Amino acid sequence: MENLQNNSGRIFKYIEENPGCHLRQLKRDLGLSMGTVQYHLNHLEKTGRIISERFNLYRCYYASGLFKENERNILKILNQQTAREVLMFILEWKNSTQTDIANHLGIAPASASWHIKRLIDLGVILESREGKYRRYQPAVDPKEIIKILKTYHPTLWNRWSDRLAEMFLSLSRENGE
């Protein structure tokens, strides 16, 4: 019985520290069997300690009551490499096009389009038309994205911090602050 509670506690602690994580990530990082992780996730969800949301092929897990919907959506994106890179590019280069994104990230235009559509559907970015071009910009305050990145993804924050500092300095200059 103690081992059951121990595994449940380990899984809950991992979800608190890594909100938006998914089943295979839990299994891999905690070194538990798939069945053990599934059992404890089900138990934690039934007891109301965690919630889960389906996101494409994944089910993402969060500690109950800690995050608003827009924060959960940002966490979903930050947990996936290509979607995160698309979002960060849009933060850094306002009003970018699908072609800009695809060329900069070295991905196929169809892949860029797929990720952009998901970001729009989650309400993380906005699309505007400018002639024949569609341009993309953040739908949420970039400071909110940065706060979540810094709090829950510190290694990513360290990698992106210099680029993001430059972005905020240019925003400040544009706004006359």
Q: If you had to describe this structure to a student in words, what would you say it looks like?
A:
The structure is a single chain. With 177 residues, the chain is α+β, with helices and mostly antiparallel strands. The chain folds into 2 domains: 2-66, Winged helix-like DNA-binding domain superfamily/Winged helix DNA-binding domain (Arc Repressor Mutant, subunit A), CATH 1.10.10; 71-174, Winged helix-like DNA-binding domain superfamily/Winged helix DNA-binding domain (Arc Repressor Mutant, subunit A, Orthogonal Bundle). The chain is built from 9 helices and 6 strands; from the N terminus they run H-E-H-H-E-E-H-H-E-H-H-E-E-H-H. It has helices at 2-17, 23-30, 34-46, 69-78, 81-92, 98-105, 109-121, 142-152, 154-174, and strands at residues 21-22, 50-55, 58-63, 96-97, 125-130, 133-138. Helix 6 packs across helix 7 and helix 8 (142-152) runs antiparallel to helix 9. The model has no long low-confidence stretch (mean pLDDT 86).
In brief:
With about 180 residues, this protein is α+β, with helices and mostly antiparallel strands. The chain folds into 2 domains: about 60 residues, Orthogonal Bundle (Arc Repressor Mutant, subunit A), CATH 1.10.10; about 100 residues, Arc Repressor Mutant, subunit A.
Look at the structure and name the CATH superfamily of the largest domain: Winged helix-like DNA-binding domain superfamily/Winged helix DNA-binding domain
Secondary structure: number of strands: 6
Q: How is the main sheet built?
A: 3 strands, antiparallel
Order of helices and strands: HEHHEEHHEHHEEHH
* Distance between the amino and carboxyl termini: 59 Å
Tell me the count of domains: 2
Q: Runs with pLDDT <50, length 5+?
A: none
CATH topology of the largest domain: Arc Repressor Mutant, subunit A
